[in-house]
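Standup notes
- DV: blocked on the single-chain target, sequence here:
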Amino acid sequence: MYTVVTIATLITMALALVRAVLGPSVYDRVLAVNMFGTKTVLLLAVIAFLYGRPDFLDLALAYALINFIGVLAVLEFFRSRVERQQSEETRGS
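- DV (later): unblocked, structure below
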């Protein structure tokens, strides 16, 4: 049963990587990378349960926090870049 969950998680992680590479917009790619990180946390939790290693859950929580903060930082970077480009276009007109 848990091997099926692990295989399904790995398949969805592969699909997320495909979306991250092919995504039509930057926001689709960021969302795909966020989904990949979330699936990684899920995979770590399943592995922790299978091997009886509760310390892996601590790693999963730490990775979830890093993933969340990283996605927020990337989105803020792109938002500020778009705002800067719009202000330059306004000054240039």
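- Follow-up: Residues 86 and 92 are 10 Å apart (CA to CA).
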